[in-house]
Amino acid sequence: MEETVTLHRLGLFAYLGVSFKTANCIESVMALVGQYMEKVDHWRSSSQKHRWVATALLEIESRHRRVKGYRKLWKLREALKQHTHVLREGA
């Protein structure tokens, strides 16, 4: 629900609401990354873990569909920049 309200507040629900009105796409990615990484019992360093996450994301990328409205993601980036700028000024 919070994601939907945020998209409405930023004025982006019409562009990205179909894909982001639930967290299912994010949960799906996290589950697949978890399956990929559960094979490792010991991490030598955090950078090694970061490399494994990056590799897992590259491996599962081809199995996912594009975000509907992906060409409008730049609007989300700009809206979030504006929003964080306003928050910093107010803090």
Number of domains: 1
Shape estimate: extended
Topology as a string of helices (H) and strands (E): HHHHH
Category by helix and strand content: mainly alpha
Number of strand elements: 0
Largest sheet: none
Give the low-confidence spans.
none
The CA-CA distance between the termini, in Å, is 26 Å
Radius of gyration equals 17 Å
- Provide mean pLDDT, rounded: 82
Helix content: over 70%
Question: How large is the share of residues in beta strands?
Answer: under 5%
Number of helices: 5
Descriptive account of the structure:
The chain is mainly alpha-helical. It has one domain. It contains five helices and no strands. The longest helix is centred in the C-terminal third of the chain and has 18 residues. The mean pLDDT is 82.
Compact summary:
By secondary structure, this protein is an all-alpha fold. It has one domain. It has helices at 2-9, 13-20, 24-37, 46-61, 73-90.
Short key terms for the protein model shown above:
single chain; 91 residues; mainly alpha; 5 helices; 70% helix; extended
Helices and strands in order, then pairings?
Elements: H1 2-9, H2 13-20, H3 24-37, H4 46-61, H5 73-90
